[in-house]
Amino acid sequence: MEELSQQLRDGELTRSINRCAVDQSLNRPEDEWAGVMREAHRNLFSNVTIIITAAQLAKMQAVIAAVEKVVALPAWRKQVLGDMSGQFIPANKGVFFGYDFHLNEDGAHLIEINTNAGGAFFNILLQHSQREEVLPGKALAPDDLERDIVAMFRHEWRLQRGEAPLQTLAIVDDAPQSQYFYPEFVLARQLFERAGIRAVIADPADFQARADGLYCGENKIDLIYNRLTDFSLEQYPALLNAYQQDQLVLTPHPYAYRLYADKCNLALLTDVERLRAMGADDATIAALQSGIPQTRLVEAQDAEQWWRERKEWFFKPATGYGGKGSYRGANLTQRVFAEIMQGGYVAQRRAMPGERMVSVDGAEPVAFKYDVRCYVYEGRVQLVIARLYQGQTTNFRTPGGGFGMVRVEA
User: Fold this and answer.
1) What SS3 string covers the chain?
2) Measuring CA to CA, how many Å separate 232 from each of 176, 256, 258, 262, 318?
3) Among 31, 72, 359, 405, fewest CB within 10 Å belongs to which?
């Protein structure tokens, strides 16, 4: 076991998947997006499987559990909700929380939490494409993952609506057909329809507000699977009003974003004194301290110190997503640094991502970075995947990179 763990730390245990099986799953002629997948999404999936240790998996689960315990504290909610405290509070929790980790020789490090984490449906397809393959390690997803995902959406509905039937669901994003992840929306729609739920893919402009709720054409929308990146919904007043008037079930929703995903929360989660004042116990604080790199709000009065120490930090916009506007301190120019000092950023101690050697088209293997995403619902890990990349952040544009399967050492 120690030899295996050393091999994992050294990045030696990377196994290729059956790419033909993936391509067959992606390119079914009856699917409307098969051509799109072939032409524009060649680098959506990496060919490798990442093997992690049982200790790394346990560490990620411990950090997730600790975050959940803190978020449940009344003092936490009072602190982070601010001006939302008097607004509508939905009963549903929010689907597809994404806890993103960097794994390295020092352990597992939570980099950020997302409340509309994409990619789950792509990765369900990837998992299914490899069911007949002999892969190293143990799977981290149940065989009935599709059923589990549908049950999650139905549970979201029941938390808000009780036993009334869920009839019509909308998958919503800006100009959805132009989105890089549009094929995933199609996969989601197909899954819901197989489960007997009418599903549409819509732009917010497709909705009409009526006295009894939102309609898309003649379909009254019961539940919206929210893929929008305006987490406050301020750009979409009709949608925001219907949500606040409890005319539909929205998942994930602005309340969940403020509780979990605003990156300013990471500064609170790494502040021992403030956690203790909120009522967090010592074991929970210890798990967060060891599992989340120190994070601080960036303030202009500390500009000189930030510039001196910049190489130790990674700078992120507090309300950003997808790595947009994020910078390694070592790469900062004076111009970008000045923009960061204008406000709206957090800085996180650097925690290096894991690396794996990947051979692209039979060439000599080259190093790829990777992070590990845990898809979580109500504190339970449903699916664990990797994202392999080169450069600063994941972009699904680099040959050899993309989503990768994750398995745990047997």
Assistant:
1) CHHHHHHHHCCCCEEECCHHHHHHHHCCCCCCCHHHHHHHCCCCEEEEEEEECHHHHHHHHHHHHHHHHHHCCHHHHHHHHHHHCCCCCCCCCCCCEEEEEEEECCEEEEEEEECCCCCHHHHHHHHHHCCCCCCCCEECCCCCHHHHHHHHHHHHHHHHHCCCCCCEEEEECCCHHHCCCHHHHHHHHHHHHHCCCEEEEECHHHEEEECCEEEECCEECCEEEECCCCCCCCCCHHHHHHHHCCCCEEECCHHHHHHHHCCHHHHHHCCHHHHHHHCCCHHHHHHHHHHCCCEEECCHHHHHHHHHHHHHEEEEECCCCCCCCCEEHHHCCHHHHHHHCCCCEEEEECCCCEEEEECCCCCCCEEEEEEEEEEEECCEEEEEEEEEECCCCCCCCCCCCEEEEEEECC
2) 19, 10, 9, 11, 13
3) 72
pLDDT at 60 over 70: yes
What is the reported pLDDT for 39?
A: 59
> So what's the pLDDT on residue 206?
96
Confidence (pLDDT) at 15: 57
Rg (CA), the chain: 21
CATH topology for the 294-350 domain: Dna Ligase; domain 1 (3.30.1490)
> What was the pLDDT predicted at 362?
79
The pLDDT value recorded for residue 146 is 93
User: Is the preceding peptide bond at 252 cis, omega within 30 degrees of 0?
Assistant: yes
Q: What is the pTM of this model?
A: 0.91
- Rounded to 10 degrees, the C-alpha dihedral 109/111/115/117 comes to -90
Looking at every residue in the chain, the average pLDDT score rounds to 88
Residue 300: the pLDDT is 87
Looking at per-residue confidence, does 393 or 153 come out higher? 153
CA dist 288 and 294 (Å) reads: 10
Q: How far apart are CA 106 and CA 72, in angstroms?
A: 28
CA atoms within 13 A on the CB side of 120: 28
323, 301 in Cβ contact below 8 A? no
